Amino acid sequence: MGDPVLRQRAGEIEDPSSEEVAALAADMADSMAAAGGVGLAAPQIGISRRIIVFKVPADRATAETNDGPLDLQVLVNPVIEPLSGEMELGWEGCLSIPGLKGEVPRYRKILYRGYDLNGEKVLRHAEGFHARVIQHEVDHLDGILYPERMTDMRRFGYGEELLRAAAEVPPVNERGDGK
Predict the structure, then answer these.
(1) Is there a binding annotation on residue 94?
(2) What is the pLDDT of residue 169?
(3) 140 annotated as ligand-binding
(4) pLDDT of the residue at 67
(5) Is 137 in the active site?
(6) Contacting residues for 64 by C-beta, under 8 A, at least 6 apart
(7) Contact at 8 Å (CB) between 104 and 92?
(8) Within a domain: residue 61?
(9) Domain count, the chain
(10) Which residues bind Fe cation (predicted)?
(11) Which listed residue (88, 137, 161, 174) is catalytic?
């Protein structure tokens, strides 16, 4: 966070099937895996190009809609279209803002398109976590970090502190007074 490349719109990739793009995708996948992430955009490693890598782990897949899990995916020049106005809040972290988490509203259902590393068109519906990771990574391509999407900054902090605070909050009864 603070690197100027993360604040600008990344440039389009002319040939998604080039060896240079394949090498970039491999480097991104290695960087993501080394950091224990589930998504990474090229600007996060200092390259202002429109390419993301991501996966949907089995424990984050949406079973009720059969959306995932997904092994490593590469998407070049992605474009997102919300399929409804329905938004949902979810906790996000980011490899560019280590240790911090925030509750971010995202579209629940999206359509995304772009290209794979063979230059073939990709067109796919996504819901839940799958939709969230795509939106998060495409935001990076547009120079947006997730705190800019947050609506309640009280829901932003260090992951361990947020968990500790949540554990200390007594349950609220019907009167709303916690007694």
Answers:
(1) yes
(2) 59
(3) yes
(4) 72
(5) yes
(6) none
(7) yes
(8) yes
(9) 1
(10) 94, 136, 140
(11) 137
